[in-house]
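Mods, move this if it's the wrong board.
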Amino acid sequence: MSTTSLIQRIQKTLRELDIDAWLFFDHHHRDPIGYQVLNLKLEQMASRRWYYLIPKEGEPHSLVHKIESRIIDSLPGEKHVYSGWRTHQEGLGSLLSGLKRVAMQYSPGCAIPYVSMVDAGTIELIRSFDVDVVSAADLIQIFHATLSASQIESHLSAGVKMDTIRKAAFDQVSKALAHKQPLTEFQLQTWVRNAFDRENLFTDHGPIVAVNANASDPHYEPTEASSSPIQANDLLLLDMWAKHKAPGSVFYDITWTGFCGSSVPSEMDNVFEIVKNSRDAAFNRARFGREQASPIHGFEVDDAARAVIVDAGFGDFFVHRTGHSITEDVHGTGANMDNLETHDVRQILPNTIFSVEPGIYLKDFGIRSEFNVLAQENTAIVTGEIQQSLLRL
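Not the wrong board. Structure tokens:
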């Protein structure tokens, strides 16, 4: 999309939301969201404050420092330059003149920390010009978390590769067990990372490979120095995320669990069934909302999942949100499925992707089941394979 078309779309949305302008602000790359929305290069130096204001009508305006005056020259509009603090104040006052309601990367009370990029002092400064600062969370979801057709295809094709790698990883465990060959969490993690490289997939860390009590730590990662062996009668959790090594690619993020043996303890099977039912309840709530064309919010999906686990008596052992937005970042800036860590009131929009990953984490083992959901115009779909029972390895 051209910059001109992007700004026209933003202006149309601002009018629909009754917001006078979207004000972008950065200093030392504090706001990567702004760079991504505006298609700016993060590599350039940003040692001075800059502002870019897109009004709901008319031409955009920028305010930049004299020694970095070209920092956002790729964007259209009238440029204003400052050097000292007095001219900065004057320039900002001129930029905001006549505006009453301006959106920024801010969240009241930091209720949605993933979009809260602007510091409190800058918010105070903008408000000193008698301007009401409102959250840009909805704008960010529309213009950052809503995906193009090619991005959705990148997610789907990465998912095909990752589902194959995931199956092969569990096969590696089965072979090691059958031949009584030693295999550790770290060794399996390394095997998966090497498989990613062969398939030209990127991840910044992980995957999580965890047995027994380690699987009760949702963010556990083995290291070469600290890694448990994978042995008979162990529960094994594999959480993996990656995307294509190409600009604009979108992550695929899944968690599967298995038992190293054929005689699974009834407690583990029972916990898996509860987690699976919770996962499916969350998905069905999201799908129903899209099919009924009724607003469905992130917190409602979390409520649906959490109710199943609470009713089964394991509420205290479900310690994180049900799911997160997925974009070019594994934890994206769209609506999260969350009414625990935050109260996410953002609507689930068409062409957004999010994870559904409830879990129960007990003293001796933890089970999580995760798949990804694509919200479409009139429905929602799971984008990859779905685990229906605890694997027997």
